[in-house]
Amino acid sequence: MPHPLQPPTRGRWREFFDLRRAGFRVNLFFALVVLAGLLAGLGSLAYYTATQAAVRWGQALVAGTGPRVVFLAIAGGLVVGLLGLLGPRDRLDGVARVIYGAALGRPLVGLRDALGIFIRSTVTIGTGGSAGREGPVVIIGAGLAGTLGRLMKLSGREMRTLLAAGVAAGVAVAFNAPVAGSLFALEIILGDFAAGTFSLVVLAAVAATVLAHGVLGGEPVLQVPAYTFHHWAELFLYAGLGLAAGLMGRLYIAAIRGSGRLFQRLPGPSWLRPAVGGLLFGTVGAFLPITLGAEYTPIAVAAQGGLAWQVLLALALVKVATTAITLGSGGAGGAFAPGFVIGAFLGGGYGTLMGRLFPAITGEVGGYALVGLGAMLASFTLAPLTATLLLFELTRDYAVILPTMLACAAAYRVSRAFSPYNLDTLSLYEAGIEWRSGRQIDVLQRVTAAQVMTREVRTVRVDQTVADVVALMREYRYHGIPVVDHQDRLVGMVTLDDVRETPLEGRLQRPVAEVMSSRPIVSFPDETLDQVLATLTGQDVGRVVVVEREDRGRILGIITKGDVLRAYNEEAVRASPGALPLPAD
Q1: Span 21-48, mean pLDDT?
Q2: Residue 38: pLDDT above 70?
Q3: Consecutive H or E run containing 285
Q4: In 152-268, which ranges are continuous DSSP H helix?
Q5: Which letter does DSSP use for residue 448 in this model?
Q6: Bridge-partner residues for 492, per DSSP?
Q7: Helix 10-62 vs helix 134-151: angle between axes, to the nearest 10 degrees?
């Protein structure tokens, strides 16, 4: 055995340098996390500056005149719609895309996405759209961090942490709330509170916040009167507010998602939809300007009291409608800031009503408005911890913590009783990903298309008629059927939409060749399900045909979104600790 002071042998020198490289990589990753935080912080600051300037410009242009409000909203919608044509079309976008990318350890948003949402959301907010800033700063932070990680060729695990760091930094600057920004990234983006990840995410958020304080100062975002606890029995009233917020949060989610589906069904080009949305919310805003925009001024109005509870509740419902129209029509922005206003209106109205019913135990209306804000956030995000701490950092008032914790817990339980999905994870579910936690999405990378595809594929020939296609669709409840030639080789795909878009006169007698798409969306048997799902969502189709790589005319099978979801569930059960074995097919 060599003496401890003896110089290392040649093999030990190699080991020594290997350890140094490992240590260097750790230090390099720490530096990358800080750099990602600073870049995301700068991006968030630039975005904040741009939106503030756009809002001032828009307010000066309309000068409180109703027709100008409508005109500006329509013009902004046209600009947003046309800009949307320049970006990628993907049903899985916004924060949901960031969540999915973080779970897979892949940067699914890049600089182009960040720049696109920067410009489009600035236009939306500046022209009166009821949308928030937090959604865009999430995409900006993730886009900048993901680009940095891609340049440094980070592993999937490192990329996952770096994306969360970028998101935390962006949110921290947007709300001047580093703790809540960190929890947002962990609770909503990652669904994971691992200690190692937590420390790195906090590091990025703190770095960005220090940068922001040098520019914006350290004042709280919400300037509201200090909260005072009035009576111990008031806690029961705050619990009741949480129950009401839970219901309102579910209504908020349903309104946004439903509005999106309604606007997608509108005839005409998709780039006109934001302008139609602008016409609708602009008309409402001409009479109720307090229901437009992304500013927090309405929160102060609700907290001051003086309005009837019916008026405040009506304003909350109108704000739900204007936000649903803005986001559902294609306007760019987030749901947090409008949700804050809705929660404040709801809380203010609830507090006013309780003051009439129980004057001996009811405190100031402002306290209910603030707690309603936090409870509403907990309801539609299903993130009560983030909601509680974000409200504390927004107000810097520790006294509000106790009733907020109670109301947020109640709102969370009510909202989750309706559905386990929040506003963003519902998008994942509808895209075929049953998101339970960030660690479970990687099951899609363990299953291939060959393992999931349906091998018995019913097809139609090019010389058959639309009547034959309709008969097959009715019999088997298909929405799309592959088209083959006389040698049974794939030449196209005919869908229910293709049939519907065919002129009614002589529709059933038309040959399939005139109706089908000659460029069917295909996949290959060795592709993993996350690649298949990316194709499904990216191309906005409900099925892909599995073909050989060397011979794309030979059909091997077909995969639908339902097949992906079923395979995901089965694999997730197998991967769960203590899972029971699934029955064999």
Answers
A1: 81
A2: yes
A3: helix 273-287
A4: 156-175, 178-184, 195-216, 234-264
A5: B
A6: 483
A7: 150
Q: Is the Cβ–Cβ distance between 421 and 525 less than 8 Å?
A: no
Side chain identity at residue 389, one-letter code:
L
Q: Which amino acid is at 269?
A: P
| Euclidean distance between CA atoms 526 and 505, whole angstroms | 44
On whether the pTM is more than 0.85, the answer is: no
Contact 470, 453 (CB under 8 A): no
Sequence letter at residue 123:
V
Q: Which residue has the tokens 């649903």?
A: 324
DSSP-based three-state secondary structure for 576: coil
Residue located via tokens 């921290």: 172
Token code pair at residue 480: 């799309």
Report phi then psi at 466, rounded to 5: -60, -30
| DSSP structural state of residue 458 | -
Please give the angle made by the CA atoms of 308, 310 and 311, to the nearest 5 degrees: 70
pLDDT at position 342: 96
| Cβ–Cβ under 8 Å, residues 98 and 88 | no
CA-CA distance, 285 to 263, in Å (whole number)?
A: 20
Look at the block and give the residue holding tokens 């018995």.
456
CB 351 within 8 A of CB 318: no
CA distances from 502 to 371, 463, 506, 508, 510 (A): 54, 17, 9, 9, 9
The candidate with the shortest Cα–Cα distance to 455, out of 546, 537, 347, is 546
Q: 558 φ, ψ to 5°?
A: -145, 145
What pLDDT does 583 receive?
Answer: 38
Is residue 233 packed enough to be buried (19+ CB in 10 Å), middle (13-18) or exposed (0-12)?
A: exposed
Length of the chain: 585
Name the phi and psi angles at 455, rounded to 5. Answer: -80, -25
**Cα 549 from Cα 490, distance rounded (Å):** 13
Buried b (16+ CB within 10 A) or exposed e, 160-169: bbbbbbbbbb
CB 513 within 8 A of CB 520: no
Long-range Cβ pairs for the range 354-363 (8 Å, 24+):
354/237, 354/240, 356/309, 358/237, 360/231, 361/230, 361/231, 361/233, 361/234, 361/237, 362/230, 362/231, 362/234, 362/237, 363/228, 363/229, 363/230, 363/231, 363/234
The token pair at 31 is 């530096």
- Residue 224 confidence (pLDDT): 62
Strands (E), 456-516: 460-461, 480-484, 490-495
pLDDT digits (tens, 9 = 90+) for 330-387: 999 888 889 999 999 999 999 999 999 998 888 888 889 989 999 999 999 988 888 8
CA separation for the pair 94, 66 (Å, rounded): 31
